[in-house]
Amino acid sequence: MASVKKRMAVLVGCNYFNTQYELHGCINDVCAMQKLLTSRFGFVSNHVQVLTDEPNSAVTPTGANIKAALNRMIDQAEAGDVLFFHYSGHGTRIPLKNHLGQDEAIVPVDFNLITA
Looking at residue 88, what is its pLDDT? Predict the structure, then answer.
């Protein structure tokens, strides 16, 4: 079994400010998770990417930005690394293409849904 080399995380918080879908606490969730990962679980802060929709955020959690952050984390991963994804925001369900059920999706701030 490979030993853990590095721990990487992508943390996303969407409060959807000034929309009819506004939430309260999603950015707080991300801040709490970031603190937990770095203080308790050995994550180094420069290996934790945070995307929030708060004013002056370094990276806004659009569909494209979330996918890019996840792809970067995966591309940098090596055997034995720990990868962690945390999302706090709206989710939804969308019909499957065969109409035999529904798939789940996360809802970025630009409302470009992300599915599996």
Answer: 98
- Inter-residue contact 11 to 51 (CB < 8 Å): yes
Which 3 state secondary structure label does DSSP give 7?
Answer: strand
Its pTM surpasses 0.90: yes
Identify which of 40, 49, 39 has the alpha carbon closest to the alpha carbon of residue 83. Answer: 49
The CA–CA distances, whole Å, from 7 to 36, 85, 88 equal: 13, 11, 20
What are the start-end ranges of the E strands in 1-116? 7-13, 48-52, 82-88, 91-95, 102-106
The pair of structure tokens assigned to 27 is: 């950015």
